[in-house]
Automatic annotation (TrEMBL):
Name of the protein this chain belongs to: Riboflavin kinase
Biological processes, Gene Ontology terms: FMN biosynthetic process; riboflavin biosynthetic process
InterPro entries for this protein: Riboflavin_kinase, Riboflavin_kinase_bac/euk, Riboflavin_kinase_dom_sf
GO cellular component: mitochondrion
Reactions listed under catalytic activity: riboflavin + ATP = FMN + ADP + H(+)
Cofactor(s) of this protein: Zn(2+)
Coiled coil regions, renumbered to chain: none
Primary role: Catalyzes the phosphorylation of riboflavin (vitamin B2) to form flavin-mononucleotide (FMN), hence rate-limiting enzyme in the synthesis of FAD. Essential for TNF-induced reactive oxygen species (ROS) production. Through its interaction with both TNFRSF1A and CYBA, physically and functionally couples TNFRSF1A to NADPH oxidase. TNF-activation of RFK may enhance the incorporation of FAD in NADPH oxidase, a critical step for the assembly and activation of NADPH oxidase.
Keyword Transport: no
Protein species of origin: Brachionus calyciflorus
GO molecular function: ATP binding; metal ion binding; riboflavin kinase activity
Residue ranges of every copy of the Riboflavin kinase domain listed in the record: 19-149
Lineage: Eukaryota, Metazoa, Spiralia, Gnathifera, Rotifera
Amino acid sequence: MPGSCDDLVVEFLKDSNNSMKFPYFATGCVVKGFGRGSKQLGIPTANYPEDVVDKLPSAFDNGVYYGWAQVDDGPVYKMVMSIGNNPYYNNEKKTMETYVINEFENDFYGSNLKTIMLGHLRPMTSFKNLDELITAIKKDIADAKELLEKPEENMYKSHQFFNNPNVKL
């Protein structure tokens, strides 16, 4: 059963040049997306609503990111997130689509999704065909799994953001 959630981008840090700095914290209710992740790609995604996407800082480049994710008060898992217009599908709307690297028994629409983005894997790009897209996504997942084993990335798995609902970052 989904928990209650409030759509909110929690924290964005900038360096002295006013450019993007990680980590980036976000939370919001999972909403239905285009339905392609599961059906066409075999890689189901949890989508943030438009109001969360609209709060992304302009310095946030379209692309694929990696980090940690938690659904409601469950375990924290590795994740990859696509942020952008998905040029292969010619989307007009910018989306934030998170693939939580775990096998879930059920969908979790309406659940609270917390994410910590720790780094950028690659820019958003188009592909010649669906097989190329799936191959790239599988590489993104493999790269994220490897990067998140590094101690400086792995330590965020137990960050207070996931454990304390009243955390001030």
